Structure formats: C-alpha cells, structure tokens
Amino acid sequence: MIRNKWCNDEMTQATALSLIEYDLQALFDKALAKVDVKHANILNIALQDLCKWWKNYFVVTRPGIRNRAYHEFEENSGGKIAEDDESFFDCLTSINAFRRSISIGEGSRDSSAQLFVAALRSLGIPARLVCSLQAVSFKIARKNEATSRKKENVLGSTNEEAQRTLGLGKYKLSAKRKNGNSSKPKRGQGDDDDDYNPLSKQSSTDRLGKSRNVLKNSPKRNNSNGLQESNTPPIFWCEVYFAAYKKWFCVDPIRALVNSPQAMEPAPNDTDNVMAYVVAFEQDGYIKDVTRRYTSQWGARTRKLRVPATKDGYDWWHETLSYFARPYERKQDNEEDEHLHKLEVSERMPTSIGAFHNHPLYALERHLKKFEIIHPKQPIIGNIRGEPIYPRKNVKQLHTAETWLREGRQVKIGEQPIKHVKSRIYTLAKRRAANMASLYDEEPPESGLYGEWQTEEYIPEPIIDGKVPKNSYGNVNMFKENMCPIGGVHIPINGIGKIAKKFGIDYGDAVVGFDFQARRCVPVIHGIVVAKEHETMLLEAWHEYASHVEAMNNEKREREVLTRWRKLIIGVQIRMRLYNDYVKEDSSDMEEGESEFYHGESEGESELYHVDTEEEDNNCSIDVDKPNETIGEKTIVESNDDKSNTNSSDDMDIEGDFVRIEENDINTGGSTTCDDKDEEMYTGDKNEVIEIEGGFIREKQYEDIDIGGGFIRDDEDLLE
C-alpha cells in the first residue's frame, strides 16, 4: 500500500512524464480521445512502445522479493534472514529513494514495475499496481525437501567461491552517469559479483541521445539463491483498463508483455514465486483480489495454497479484504466480478486424481465424506483411470432425522435411509449401548441418513381449546420459527412460565436447541409457547411482576448499604474511643509544656487556647475564645483573660468541630449543652474523665455512661 501511494507522488509522476518522449505522449493522448475499438488498438500499440522504451531506459540492478520457507529462517541465525541476503533485494526505504530510482533509471525489478505504474498514471492512464503476495505457506515442507534445498544452497555457494577464485562472473555496469563519471557501486545495488550473476548488456540511445547499457537475457541462475531473471514471471506488474473492452489488461514492463495473463503465473515447482494471493491496488487506494485472472488451476491448486475457511464458514482472507474494498459498487467492478466468475467456471478439468479432491467444479466418489453422497449419478462428465467424474453440484449432504428436524424439516412418510453410518458417541447412554453391543459381539449402533429430497417442511400441530401440543418430554420443539403450533405464539422470556401457571394457562417450554454437558444432552429452553389469545394478558402480568421484583431488589440493596454504613460508623466510634482511652494516657509521660495537640506560638511565648462556659437559660454551652487565625474550617479567637494561660498544662485540640481541653480531659463536639445540675462535671475534680463527642457525654470516674441524642442522663445511682 505504501508503494502504491508512492506511485501517486506528484514529484515522481512529474519526473516520469519529463522522461517520456513527446511522440509517445502524443500517441497516448490520441488513444484516450475516444472510447471505441479503434482507439483501444491504438492504446495497445502505445503500451507496447512504452514498454520497449522503459526496458531500454530502466536498468535492473537487483532482483525483487521472493518467497521464503520456514527452514530458511531456521538455518539463518535463529529465525532471522541474513543481512547480506536481505540488503541485496529491494531496499527503498523512503520516497526520496523512490524518486532517485526513476531519475537515475536503475533499481530492482519490483521498483521498475512500480515506477512504470507512476509513469502510466502521469499520462492519465487508469493503471493498477498488481502484487503477488509471497506469504509464507501455512504448510511446513517435508524434511527431505528442506534437506535437498539446503544441499543446493551449499553447492551454489561453493560454485560462487570457485568463480571468484578464477575471476569469473563479475558484473560491471559500463554505463556512464550524466555527469560523465562512473560511480562506484554500493553493496546491494548490483555490482556485487558475490550475489548476482549478471545479464548481458546491449547499447541503446535514450531520448537525450546518451548511451545507456540495457540488460539482456543471460544463462539461467540457480533459483535456490532467490534471484529473479527478466524472463521469469514477476512479483509486481500493472494493469491498464480498456474502456472499449470493459476489461483490465495486464502489462509487464520488464518483458514488454501486454494482455498476457498466462505469462504471469509461475511454474508449480517454483519455490521462489508462489501464486496464492494476487491483489490489485487502485489509484484511490482500494484493493481487489484478482487471483483468478492469472491462475490456470484455481480449483485444483491455487485455492489449496490459501488458509482454508473454518467449519462455520468464516474466511480470513475475505474478512481481511473487506476492510480495504471499495465501500460502494461501480458498474465497472460488477463487470469485472462477472468476468472473474466466468474464468473460474470455465477452468479445464484436472489431469490427476489428487487434484479432484475438494475441487469446486468436479468430484470423484472416492473423495466423498461421511455425510455426503452423489445424487443423482447423472450426468457423467468424464472418466479418469476408469473412475467416473461427476459435477460438484451433484454432491448432496445427508443428515439424520433428528438433525433435519432441527433444520425445520421432517422425513417424508415411507422414506428409507439412503445411507447408514456408525453412530456418534456423544452421551453416556450411547456409550453404554455401544459397550453392550461389543459385549455380545453385536454390530455397533448405526444411524440412518436422509437426503434433503427425502424430507419436507415441518408441519406443526394446531392448538385446540387452548391446549398446546407437546412432545414426549412435555416441551415444544421451536428450532425454527415455522415450527410454532398453529394458533400459538412463542414468548421468548425466561421465567414467564410460572406466571402462566398461576393463571392456569396451558403452556409448553420452548426448546430451541441442545447443549452437551457432562456427557449428557441437555435441552436449551428459551421462553414458552401459549395460545395467541393469552399473549397480551401474560405480557402485562410479566411487566407488573418484573417491576415488583425490581422494587424489592432496590429495597434490599438499600438495606445492605445502610447496614454497611452503620458498621463503618460504629467502627470509627470504637476506634476513637480506644484512642482516647489508651493512646492519650501514654502521652502523659511527655515533658511539661509539650502538647500533642495544636498550639499557637507568638514572639517565642506559647499561647494556649481554653474553653469558657457561659450560663444561659439554665443551660451551659461551651465556647472558645478565638485568636486571629483560622485552623481547618473553624476560626479560633485568642482569649484576653490572663487566667487562661496560668496553667501551661492546659492543652486544647481542634479537630473539625471538636474542642478538647487536656486539663480536665474534656472532649466536646458540635453544640453540645448540659443542665446546671451537671455543671460541676466540667469544673470538678481533675481525676474525672469526661468526653463529649458529637452530642455524646461520657463520664469515666466510676464507669462508662453513654448519653445519646444530645441529652444528659441524670442517674444519681450511677454517679455515686
């Protein structure tokens, strides 16, 4: 796809157009002036002349890519291709190198075809870039094949060493660059006599009148080295659309071939060029599979080289191409599809028995599968070694009566199985039957197979007086929609059967399939089948029931949430109480004047905050004299009373909404108030420990007293 984009590069096309002779440009303009057979012939002549000119202009200095086998990766440094071998092939890594290749007129065989496409597009010709993808085969070669190939590689390298010793096989480009100086060839660009056996040269004159060396045919080189010659089928070529014929014609610029699709197919024994996937890249970037145009044995050989489709019909290749195909259909594309289909159905008959296996057009009886049969056995379209050849369309699928029932068909009355096969042992019951048969030397159980012509569409029974017809298990077979009883309806809602049972409505569970669990065949039930007159009432009752269940689930969820919050709050309270009871007692060993709570410092003197009480309406409230600073989200005002600082042991902690005084170990929170009767609790003995936490007052002189809800419990007996 990247090379196809490079072919659309404006700079590359401008360079190619500037190199093409004016006479050729005028000939192409004349061919495109009108769409008819006469101008199509002119276009054909112009393409041939352009190929000849390109063959003289562009010098092939490197071969293109080739197919590689698995054993090549194993032989080269742990699964990697040797750098010398890889750098010898096409190595254009940027658009600048692509532009330079057409400017100097040399490069690999693949880049030659790609640049030729750019030249055609610069002339306004609708051209495609065609590539035969050299994917690594999903089949691993046999051991003897890999060993023989390895020996060929060793012999080839030995011969090259001998040639280098004798000074033979050197390849030099005698062509001079336009500046008159011969440039020293770089490694991997065609002058390495260790890697490339050259093609002979001939002299020709380009449009500028300068001499240029052009490659000619040479003795064939060993294919085991992966080198391609100019007379072998290419990996890249191009296609040109002839509007008069409504067809795409292939063009090979290296061999100067026009409309010769058979010449693009490599030999079956060519391991360096394997034709399995041939794709054409449109000028707008879309991709199309055109393999059937260039292969003569699509059904017998090429189709088997691809990754096969799965049993459920999934084809990886078609799925992948769908992402790059044109999203809309053109008349031109439909005509091409029809042409490719004609090529497929007109394929000649194979000449070997193995080629008939899974052939899309022809079939032999020996290749039939377990559940296949040829029906009818006419016509016989040929013979091979005395065995009749039948059309593939006569191969029919066979199934058991149960399988046909799942397809919505039933065996006709009086029909006999056309074929018997050994039963598949899937369940414990069938395994026991097979074991009993073997114990008494009986034949294993067999299943009768029927063809589609022996079946008919399933005819369901009617519902009479609201009674639903059921099978022997009390269910209704609903494998297909046409199997619903006459006058009934299928409600595909699980759990609605209990509502129908409460209303006293007759129903049957709908069996839509089977599942195998623990070697048992378990029916898959989805909804129920009832009479059509009960459908509306059941659906209304179901919606009401579903709403009630949802409300109950919400209430249950709320209760669970509140329970978890209650546990969390109780846990926090317990943690704070344990902290106040035990952790703060250990802090009494601290040095005098040192406090673990917050205190402010001003001019080197510690300013402690204290709490004053104010009597108001027979109630007492706890207020704080606030200094001019803010702690957390509460403002603390400094007290002007000197008495508040007389005792340096008074420590006060501000935690959120709580104020604590260490002198009496009093913890107050929120806006807690108390009666006058208990005011002495705040001014009494220092040994008393009173905690006020968020509305709770606790006394710990004798035992813990919990006072909740903002109230003080006046229990004289407990205080004594």
UniProtKB/TrEMBL annotation:
It comes from the Eukaryota. Residues 214-229 have a biased composition (Polar residues). One of its GO terms (biological process) is nucleotide-excision repair. Residues 173-187 have a biased composition (Basic residues). One of its GO terms (cellular component) is nucleotide-excision repair factor 2 complex. The keyword DNA-binding applies. GO terms for molecular function: damaged DNA binding; single-stranded DNA binding. Residues 166-229, 613-652, 665-685 are annotated as: Disordered. Residues 345-396, 398-461, 468-542 form the Rad4 beta-hairpin domain. Pfam families: BHD_1, BHD_2, BHD_3, Rad4. Residues 623-644 have a biased composition (Basic and acidic residues). InterPro entries: BHD_2, DNA_repair_Rad4, DNA_repair_Rad4-like, Papain-like_cys_pep_sf, Rad4/PNGase_transGLS-fold, Rad4_beta-hairpin_dom1, Rad4_beta-hairpin_dom3, Rad4_BHD3_sf. Keywords: DNA damage, DNA repair, DNA-binding, Nucleus. Signal peptide: none annotated. The keyword DNA-binding applies. It is found in: Nucleus. Belongs to the XPC family. This is Rad4 beta-hairpin domain-containing protein.
